[in-house]
Design goal:
By secondary structure, the chain is mostly helical. The chain folds into two domains: 2-113, no CATH class; 116-245, Tetracycline Repressor, domain 2, CATH 1.10.357. The chain is 70% helix and 3% strand. The chain has a two-stranded antiparallel sheet. Residues 93-112 bind DNA. Residues 66-130 form the HTH tetR-type domain.
Length: 247
């Protein structure tokens, strides 16, 4: 009971901080630029606007988009909000993650012993999200043969989304190459599920070589995730959808 109480308190604290921070930034950004130089903004509003602009400048310096916020649950159900874990898991030290989350060190370490536990929790959360989206697509598809096209469309939306920084699983595997490491194992778990799910889908669709086709889809997906970050994402989306349609 005490653990559950601490988890609820920690979650409420972080959510209050995140909500207050978003509110300050939104209020500052709504103020007309010309009024900022005198006229209609009082001293407190000018300070809030300046703080918001400085915050956006600081985040832009490390490549963190200002509109990509997501809660991440730890193994004990706690939540730490940071702006972009795709960036944090590879480049940001724990101190910077704590700063971006606007939580105390005690709150962070109460829920996550270190950054690696946070990264693993994030990957597990992403895995659950992707599985849920695939299941939803399967329910909405008219037939299993339609699913690859839906997968391509979903990948295209992700690649072209605001703040896209590449695949978190590929990024994490590059950062933690040891296959025995828990983070790399979380990556392997996700990819094993994805490969088997694609194989089962293609088998149900009557594909003559579903295992091979599933591997081709994974290669296309991996290439699109990297290319969507390095090249023109719209062009990558079009190429991905056309190629998958020919399988």
């Amino acid at each position: 009971m005490e653990l559950l109480r601490r988890q609820r308190d920690g979650l409420a604290q972080v959510e209050r901080v995140a909500q207050d921070r978003r509110g300050r930034l939104e209020r500052a950004q709504r103020q007309p630029q010309d009024a900022a130089h005198g006229g209609g903004i009082d001293r407190d509003a000018r300070r809030a606007e300046a703080a918001g602009q400085q915050h956006l400048h600081d985040r832009a310096a490390v490549g963190v988009p200002h509109d990509d916020r997501r809660p991440v649950e730890g193994a004990d159900g706690s939540v730490v909000v940071i702006d972009d874990l795709r960036e944090a898991q590879v480049r940001l030290p724990v101190d910077r993650v704590i700063e971006e989350a606007e939580v105390s060190r005690a709150t962070f370490y109460r829920h996550f012993p270190g950054k690696e536990e946070l990264v693993r929790a994030y990957l597990e959360r992403e895995d659950e999200r992707i599985r849920a989206r695939f299941a939803e697509a399967a329910r909405s598809a008219e037939s299993p043969a339609q699913l690859p096209a839906l997968v391509a469309a979903a990948l295209g939306d992700e690649i072209c989304g605001a703040g896209f920084r590449g695949c978190p699983f590929i990024n994490a595997a590059a950062e933690y190459p040891d296959r025995g490491h828990p983070i790399h194992q979380a990556v392997d778990t996700h990819r094993t599920w994805f490969r088997q799910t694609l194989t089962d889908t293609l088998t149900a669709a009557g594909h003559p070589d579903p295992a091979h086709a599933a591997q081709v889809l994974i290669l296309l997906r991996d290439g699109a995730m990297v290319g969507g970050y390095l090249d023109d994402p719209e062009q990558i989306r079009t190429t991905l959808e056309k190629t998958i349609a020919r399988l």
